[in-house]
Amino acid sequence: MRTLYFDCFSGISGDMVIGALIDAGADPLQMEKELKKLNMDEEYTLSWRKIVKNGITSTKFDVILTSKSEQPFDHSHSHEHEHSHVHEHSHSHSHEHEHSHSHSHEHEHSHNQGHEHSHNQGHEHSHAHEHSHSHVLHHHHDSRTYKQIVEAIKVANFNESVTNMSLAIFKKIGEAEGRIHGLPLEKVHFHEVGAVDSIIDIIGTAILIDQIGIESVQSSAIPTGSGHIHIDHGIYPVPAPATLEILKGVPIASNVIRSELATPTGAAIASALAETFGSLPAMTVESIGYGAGTKTFENHPNVLRVIIGETQ
Questions:
Q1: How far apart are CA 68 and CA 81, in angstroms?
Q2: Is this prediction's pTM over 0.85?
Q3: In the predicted model, is pLDDT for residue 117 greater than 70?
Q4: Pairing mode, if any, of strands 124-125 and 115-116?
Q5: Which 3-state string (H, E, C) describes 123-174?
Q6: How far apart, in whole angstroms, are the C-alpha atoms of residue 53 and residue 67?
């Protein structure tokens, strides 16, 4: 049986999962094409590149939001968008370089952005955006509801496996948020988790797992980290309430790192998809991938390792 094992020695987040799957040989271009079915591709661009984390070559995956993701959708943009992002990847189009790249695109609704990524198959993307389709998910990215996200997944016409995985992960997060805020599932509004990058991380993960033909998902125990984090509602202990709620029934590993290691998205991916939690199963290993996290720790490689192979 073709098995995927999440080796979460440094926790798990959505971007680490996608980075690790790409690193293990999944095709990000096919994922990018599939994600266009959500009709929200004008809100983001995708980036992936090889980086080294504490001596381990890994793949860093990023969802870079455009300014359109921060405002209600409007069909009548004739102005130029100035937006500034901090990103370390190289673009083939020229930018003014400060430390964060400030780039302005003219949005005449078919702009071409050639992106060159420093991963294995350096390629260029050309994004041409058509605006004649319906925009189910075009709302201010902080106010997407569980119902809107479910509707968008259902109308996107992904295959059954991708649809079911995506819905299972979002339901995990929605139920956790609902319990914390005392709301029924259909009334849950997604804040951090409903942002564009989490939607892409979750559905992108489902697309890649389906693409590489995984029949069984297993995971190590999940280290959550420690300390405190700032979230929408104030300063909270790690693990954040939503993360801890999502990890009910999942073995949590102890660790001494004072940082958030498991995000709600990462916790939900492992919790919804893994059938068992424990040590690496007996398997014939076919491929290994390392997905880099954003933070860097002094004595600890902040990467997620995925191991793919045949189990009995």
A1: 9
A2: no
A3: no
A4: antiparallel
A5: CEECCCCCCCCCCCCCCCCCCCEHHHHHHHHHHCCCCHHHHHHHHHHHHHHH
A6: 30
pLDDT digits (tens, 9 = 90+) for 249-262: 999 998 889 999 99
CA distance 234 to 252: 24
Assess contact for 38 and 203: CB atoms under 8 A.
yes
* Banded model confidence at residue 69, pLDDT cuts 50, 70, 90: low
Contact between 141 and 195 under an 8 Å Cβ cutoff? The reply is yes
User: The tokens of 177 are what?
Assistant: 């948020």
Q: Is the pLDDT score of 77 beyond 60?
A: no
Mean pLDDT (the chain, rounded): 80
How far apart CA 273 and CA 47 sit, in angstroms, is 25
Closest alpha carbon to 262 in 18, 14, 6, 7 = 14
pLDDT value at residue 305: 98
> First and final CA of the chain: distance in angstroms?
6
Q: Kindly report the CA angle at 263 between 146 and 209, in degrees rounded to 5?
A: 75
Q: Are 42 and 133 in contact (CB under 8 A)?
A: no
Instruction: Tell me the sheet residues that pair with 309.
Output: 3, 285
Angstrom distance (rounded) from CA 154 to CA 147: 11
Cα–Cα distance, 155 to 134 (Å, whole number): 10
Q: Are strands 124-125 and 252-253 parallel, antiparallel or unpaired?
A: unpaired
Q: How confident is the model at residue 99 (pLDDT cuts 50, 70, 90)?
A: very low
Backbone angles phi, psi at 36, to 5 degrees: -65, -20
- Residue-wise over 254-292: b if at least 16 C-beta within 10 A, else e? ebebebbbbbbbbbbbbbbbbeebeeeeebeeeebbbbb
Pair 219, 8: CB distance under 8 Å? yes
Q: Residue 130: left if φ>0, alpha if ψ -120 to 50, beta else—which one?
A: beta
Tally the residues of the chain.
312
